[in-house]
Specification:
Blueprint: H1 3-12, H2 23-36, H3 60-70, H4 78-87, H5 97-106, H6 111-117, H7 119-126, H8 149-162, H9 164-174, H10 180-189, H11 199-205, H12 211-222, H13 228-240, E1 241-244, E2 247-250, H14 258-262, H15 275-286, H16 296-301, H17 308-322, H18 325-334, H19 338-341, H20 346-359, H21 364-371, H22 379-393, H23 401-410, H24 416-422, H25 426-444
Antiparallel strand pairs: 1-2
Helix pairs in contact: 1-2, 4-6, 8-9, 8-10, 10-12, 11-12, 13-15, 15-17, 17-18, 20-22, 23-25, 24-25
Length: 445
């Protein structure tokens, strides 16, 4: 340990087990914060003490498990622990705050829970160190009128769930005063409860100066087949593609005009993709899937003499953007990517993933598909993965590291007894041990 870590750990031990008096925690926190901001020990002292905590901390055993996770024991479970702890409405103990805030600086994915878990002392610490200032942008429970950007996003999200029309009207009332970054994020929140009632507002957002706002609006309008933008895309798609007999004839766009850009078509392609191929894929991805007049399974059987790969890649993207279950199901058979699973009900996600596990070797694609299943793995998927682990362990045990970790992290912890008794193979017992760790984690919280 460095001198700074010794100072922090020694000074902060026990601060949650006796009435808070301020001086000990404040002294250590100031020193740690100033050091991590580039200061020197004893350089200055803060005048204002940390505010009193209104919420209780998690229990001693839960706090101890958090310390173990942060110390390297099953470290990938940190986001799950934080999410579960935030759901209890409690905060983390004070002595973990410096390290937790530092982790949040490096890992944006855990920040969403820190606004709740860090409590008053965490926000006080964040005010000392600019590197931890991100915490001050996380939700605090303030209102739409008085809150920061994160509070206002949380408010709009909750209102959208309860009353979609009122949420849209609230956003419209302040739209011209919002920053470009906030406008883009607010538009994305309209995905919940999206309907044709939102179409006029989203159509107007296509004229926004910020590209991210236009893209977010176009993505939502793509999910509304009756929107004006979707109909314009349908016209462009029909100008590019003709379906007759058993052949699909394609002529990619030759230009990308201003009206196409307004509708979300990005003119400059990524490296390695030609301009016309790029424009074609975007047009077809945003055209209503009903444009093709045939079920996806039938279209996939047809011959496409030119631009075959581009057309099918566009259909994959269309299934993802438009969240169409029939198309997602069909396109998963052609290109099994995790994004397609999001459009399917949880039960079907698990069934498709289990079938994929049975037929596919252990590689990065298998891991990505399994990672795309939105809910905890239930018995069908869990046993398919365990069977795969046992089989591969007999021939390629070196190839199982990531699959074993993922299984332990994603199988429902309630299935611990099933996994424990499934096989004595070391790799399966590793999965069982991780499930037991997670089950205990939830019990403590």
């Amino acid at each position: 340990m460095t001198g700074w870590e010794e100072l922090a750990s020694t000074a902060l031990v026990g601060t949650d087990r006796r009435p808070y008096r301020g001086s000990l925690l404040e002294a250590a926190a100031v020193e740690v914060a100033r050091h991590r901001a580039g200061g020197k020990p004893g350089e200055a002292r803060l005048q204002e003490p940390a505010p009193h905590e209104e919420r209780a901390a998690v229990g001693r055993r839960a706090a101890g498990r958090l310390a173990r996770i942060m110390g390297g024991e099953h470290e990938r479970l940190l986001p799950e622990w934080l999410a579960a702890a935030a759901g209890t409405g409690r905060r983390v103990p004070a002595y973990v705050l410096p390290e937790l805030l530092e982790r949040g600086r490096r890992d944006r994915s855990i920040r969403v829970h820190l606004g709740v878990l860090a409590g008053q002392r965490g926000r006080w610490l964040a005010g000392l160190n600019p590197a931890w200032g991100y915490l001050l942008e996380e939700p605090t429970g303030e209102t739409w009128e008085l809150g920061g950007a994160a509070d206002r996003r949380a408010h709009l999200r909750a209102l959208r769930t309860a009353d979609p029309a009122e949420a849209r009207r609230l956003l419209e009332s302040t739209w011209e005063r919002e920053t470009p970054d906030d406008r883009a994020e607010f538009v994305e929140l309209l995905a919940d409860g999206l309907s044709m009632d939102d179409e006029p507002f989203l159509e107007s957002a296509l004229d926004d100066r910020r590209r991210e706002v236009r893209q977010a609006a176009a993505n939502l309008l793509t999910r509304l087949p009756g929107s004006r933008m979707s109909q314009r895309m349908a016209e462009r798609a029909r100008a590019c593609v003709a379906v007759a007999g058993n052949v699909i004839t394609v002529e990619a766009p030759k230009t990308c005009d201003k009206s196409m850009e307004r509708d979300g078509i990005r003119p400059k392609p990524p490296r390695g993709i030609g301009e016309r191929a790029w424009w074609l894929q975007q047009v077809l991805a945003r055209a209503p899937l009903a444009t093709w007049g045939r079920p996806p399974a039938r279209l996939l059987e047809m011959r496409i003499p030119d631009w075959d790969a581009e057309v099918k890649a566009a259909w994959v993207r269309a299934a993802v953007l438009q969240k169409d279950p029939e198309w997602a199901r069909a396109m998963f058979g052609w290109d099994p990517i995790a994004d397609l699973l999001e459009s399917l009900p949880p039960d079907e996600q698990q069934e498709l993933a289990a079938d994929f596990v049975k037929k596919h070797d252990v590689d990065s694609q298998l891991i990505m598909v399994l990672g795309g299943v939105s809910s905890y793995w239930r018995e069908g998927l869990a046993t398919a993965v365990l069977h795969k682990i046992v089989r591969v362990a007999a021939t390629q045990p070196w190839n199982l590291g990531e699959l074993v970790k993922l299984a332990g992290e994603r199988i429902d912890p309630a299935l611990f007894p099933l996994v424990l008794s499934y096989s004595p193979a070391e790799s399966v017992q590793q999965v069982a041990a991780l499930l037991r760790f997670r089950a205990d984690m939830y019990k403590e919280l």
